[in-house]
Write a structure and sequence with these properties.
Low-confidence stretches: none
Radius of gyration: 13 Å
CATH architecture: 3-Layer(aba) Sandwich
Strand content: 15-25%
Largest sheet: 5 strands, parallel
CATH topology: Rossmann fold
Structural class: alpha/beta
Strand order of the largest sheet: 2-1-3-4-5
Helix content: 40-55%
Number of domains: 1
Number of helices: 4
Number of strands: 5
Mean pLDDT: 92
Length: 120
């Protein structure tokens, strides 16, 4: 069965790129443009992994991460951001991985594969 990944990012181009790339890897991908939308999608369907941006309008990724871990503590979350300095933020430590956005998606894909294999 395909693994279901939720991509949460306020930039449409990033959401669509990740969707295309992850579907090529055999994942089923859902998209959310905000933290609020992500939490609604998690309530509505079964997700195996969340890719989460940090810097978003409204609820930021650190707050979304906290809410996810409160309700779905075993759900893996990868923080994927353009800002490497957030890695030092204590609030990000609950994530399963931290990846700095890049045009080369190999690191991100490897982290996803590793986490989903460990979860299986």
């Amino acid at each position: 069965m395909k693994k279901r990944v939720l991509v949460v990012d306020d930039e449409e181009g990033i959401r669509l790129l990740y969707k295309e790339e992850l579907e090529e890897e055999g994942c089923s991908v859902e998209l959310a443009a905000s933290g609020e939308e992500a939490l609604k999608r998690l309530e509505a369907s079964s997700i195996d992994l969340v890719l989460l941006d940090i810097k978003m309008p409204g609820m930021d990724g650190v707050e979304v991460l906290r809410k996810i871990k409160e309700k779905w503590k075993d759900l893996p979350v990868i923080l994927c951001t353009a800002y490497p300095h957030y890695k030092q933020d204590f609030g990000t430590w609950a994530s399963d991985a931290y990846v700095v956005k890049s045009s080369d998606l190999r690191e991100l894909k490897e982290k996803i594969k590793d986490i989903l294999q460990r979860k299986a």
